[in-house]
Amino acid sequence: MDPTRQKVKLNDGHFIPVLGFGTYAPEAVAKKEALEFTPFSIEVGFRHIDCAHFYQNEEQVGQAIQRKIADGTVKREDIFCTSKLWCTSFRPELVRPALERSLKNLQLDYVDLYIIHFPLALKPGKELLPKDENGKLIFDSVDLCHTWEALEKCKDAGLTKSIGVSNFNHKQLERILNKPGLKYKPVCNQVECHPYLNQRKLLDFCKSHEIVLVAYAALGSQRVKEWVNPNHPVLLEDPVLSAIAQKHKKTAALVALRYQIQRGVVVLAKGNNKKWIKENMQVFEFELTPEDMKAIDGLNRNIRYYEFQPGVGQPGYPFSEEY
């Protein structure tokens, strides 16, 4: 089976590869890892690269992509590249300049997908996480429908092929979908999704509106202390996943990735280990049975690793809703 051909159709007619390579890494290693592991991911068959301005390594990811284009491994059109609009650039007049900055860093004329990273606006400026003298985040009030209109203009200008959102709950999606004069529906909603948080209701909602769910943290989390609740159990140590993995002679990580693909979810896999990155391509070599799928569905505990605590209580904080 050719992994580079495994794609899902988006509601605007473009196609997204079902397996993506995530480039987020803790700040201390993000740049170095991007230069080392992004080219390797392309060599082993990844064609979908997930980036963001917030990750602070788009320049290195861009160099890696260009290197693989230059050596003939891929052409630009073989790569599906996602970037994300960070919360400090939600004011409509800041959207296009933010995208242009990402394009410059990535050394690309366009991205395949540009998405709103998180539905909470922060004070514009150089700082990614602007804080007041008490160390509290400084929020901004922006109507995300106006931000969305600016994204639509970026699509019309050819700077991005598709536009979508990330970390939105169903009510926030509905606001965009019901917006008067909507030109383009979001093609995707990228959210935390794994067997302990299977997002069944949000997935059903998205499917009913032809919105693709894209799963991040599909293997649990990297335990980055300011983002992640460290008290939660480690997903890949789950006995049910381990038993299914043993049965298929695969790893628990591969089972967690395969689970998403079989339910119609596009799944991102991060990697800071060449063995794992290469191993992730084996997700296309086996199939889970209906019994396996049912057993994994049964693991849902609504455990969210990435809670983004500083946003709790803010209007627009997405995770207060059930889905």
From TrEMBL:
UniProt keyword list: NADP, Oxidoreductase
Classification via Pfam families: Aldo_ket_red (PF00248)
Active site: 55 (proton donor)
UniProt cross-references to PROSITE patterns, sorted A to Z: ALDOKETO_REDUCTASE_1, ALDOKETO_REDUCTASE_2
Residue ranges annotated for the NADP-dependent oxidoreductase domain, each copy included: 19-300
Residues the record lists as binding substrate: 117
Similarity comment text for this entry: Belongs to the aldo/keto reductase family.
Official protein name in the record: NADP-dependent oxidoreductase domain-containing protein
Source organism per UniProt: Capra hircus
Gene it is expressed from: LOC102188299
